[in-house]
Structures are given as structure tokens and as C-alpha cells.
Amino acid sequence: MSRASSHALRHPPATAPSDNPAGAPSPFPEIAVAIERERRRGRGAQSNASGRYEAEARVAFDDGWQSLDDLPPFQTSVSLDTSRKVITRNDSPDIGFDRSINPYRGCEHGCIYCFARPTHAYLGLSPGLDFESKLFAKPDAPDLLEKELAAPGYEARMIAIGTNTDPYQPIERERKIMRGILEVLERAAHPVGIVTKSALVTRDIDILARMAKRNLAKVALSVTTLDPKLARTMEPRASTPPKRLEAIKRLADAGIPTTVMVAPVIPALNDSEIERILDAAAHAGAKEASYVLLRLPLEVRDLFREWLMANYPDRYRHVFTLIRDMRGGRDYDSQWGTRMKGTGPMAWMIGRRFEIACEKLGLNKRRTKLTTDHFAKPKRNGQQLSLF
Asked: For residue 272, which of 51, 65, 333, 378 sits 20 to 30 Å off, Cα-Cα?
């Protein structure tokens, strides 16, 4: 006989890691308990700690009956997100767009470093394994988008997609929400910039190529590493590095402006690959490139630390020492203007290496700027047509 057991710990919301002194332990270290390898096979996070807004943290533990052995593996579930709007606005001064769309919440790619993980806490779920396995889809996104584009007073500017969670994660194969969004944008001649690490983006080359001819679309592929072992461990359900490079080539061959993103750059883990990634992407057809330094906001810090200790324990201290050197002595600094690139000698060296490599490869010679000149508001059903 076996019994499922759990332990509830009452606690106030945890302090954001970025507010803690460098090297300070988690406010509630007992909450993060590693999940058995078989139960999290194919996932990135090691644990599934309760969200920071929850009054209780429930932790499974072995009660002596080997009950943990009977718990099932984490399966991907998809719930419906019934949001009434789909365009999200922002006023961040250090990013190049003021609006974005996220067809999904949560991401099955399972990238351990994903800065979007903390958003799952808003749903009462864990930024750990829940973020990768409990997903939310927005099937009404195309209709909502069309309605918002048609609204009086709407002014067209580039919409960014994939800046939070990946629009081409595995469930997009069946749901096709992203394709529906692109169909709306194409009809309205509305500019769009896409960020993804999935080769599935090539499915929509037909739409993207037509839009690119009118200077309405561009795509950025994130290539974090060329090492298949590191990629499988760090981004377990994302497309392999060769598949991403192949996607860059297919997009570029179709005339779609394509960027390679070396993101994130993790010191002592993948920073040595910057030049090789840029070289491979340039030869595949990428014309632009960018990079982002590893960001560890809120729960991401502890999740990344657990992953590093489980997979690269010999590099743990060195990696975090270098991270703090680039973050003003802390694990993360969210300061506008420096959060993407960091500060200090190590950050400066990474930046110079990136710039020199781009210069040698001819990357970033010309920046693609999308146009809003063709934008035409959609005509909604029942909407009165203009007489003039």
C-alpha cells in the first residue's frame, strides 16, 4: 500500500531575488524540492515550488511508503485563456517596441533561463515545472486582434511576437493560433517582428514572404549554443541548433529579413561560442545579429541555480561569480539600459567580441525598418462603411 503525501508550509510572498544581497540564500529554501528525474523527463526545471503569491507552499515528500514512486510524470496540459484583449502595451525605454502579442502563456520549450517564468506566479502556478507543462492558449487571439486593429484611434506600429513566450512552441502545430494572427496582420498590412527558437516558423513562410515583399515582416531566431548536449539540457523541447540554422537559411532564401539572436549569453557556459554562432548564422543567410546577457529575475535565479548544480556543478561558483561581476555584485540588476548587456569589464569584453565578429561577418550593415504605410483598418462585420 502506498499513499500520496504532501507538506504545507505557510509563508508570506517571497522577496524578489534581485533585492537580496549577493549570494544570500532563498527566503524559503525548504520549498524548492527537486522532482525525481523520471517524472520530469524532457523538462528543464528541477523543481516545482509554489508561486510567490500563494499563502501555502505544498511540497511532496516520502512518507516511508515509497509513495513518490507512484506519482505520474508531468504531462503537458492546455487550458483556454479567455482574455478580452490580445495586444499588450509597454513603455520600457530600452526595448524597440511598445506593443506585443503572446498567443500562449507558459512555454513547453522548457528553457531553464527563460525570464518569462515568473509570470506563471500570477496564475497561482509554479514558475518551475508548471510553466513548462501547464500551458494556456488564446484561441480567440486572431479575432480579438482584428477587433483591436479596427478600433477607432488605433495607430499602427510594429507588433512584436515571441518576446515573452514562444509563439511557435510545440502546441502551435495543432492550435495554429500564430498562423491565424499572421493572416489578420497580412490582411491589414500591419508590420510584425517575430522572435522564436523553433523551426516551426518555416511553416508560415508563405505568409511571411508576401509580407516581407511589402516590408511588413522580419524574423529573429534565437541560437543559444551549437553544442547539442548543452542545448538538449538547457532547452529540452526547443528545435535543435542545426534545425534553427536551417530555418534561418529557409527564411533568408524566401526573402524574409532574418536576425540571429545569441541569447542569452551565459558566462563560462556558452560565451565561448559567440563567434561560432554568428559565423554559422551569417553563412545561413542572417543579415542582422543581437545578443542579450543572462537575466535572472525573481524565481529564475533559484531555478537556474538548481539546474546548474544538477548538470554542471563544477562550473557553478565560476558562473555566478562572473554573473555578479556583470550585475554590480548582485545576481540580477533590472536597471533600464543595462539589464540586457550588464556592466563591468567582463560585460564590456563580451560586447566588444560581439561587435568585432559582426564587423568581420558583415552583420548589421543595414537595419531592417518595417513600414506602416500600407496599414488598412480591418472592416468588422456590421461595421458601417465610409461614404467617402
From this structure: 333
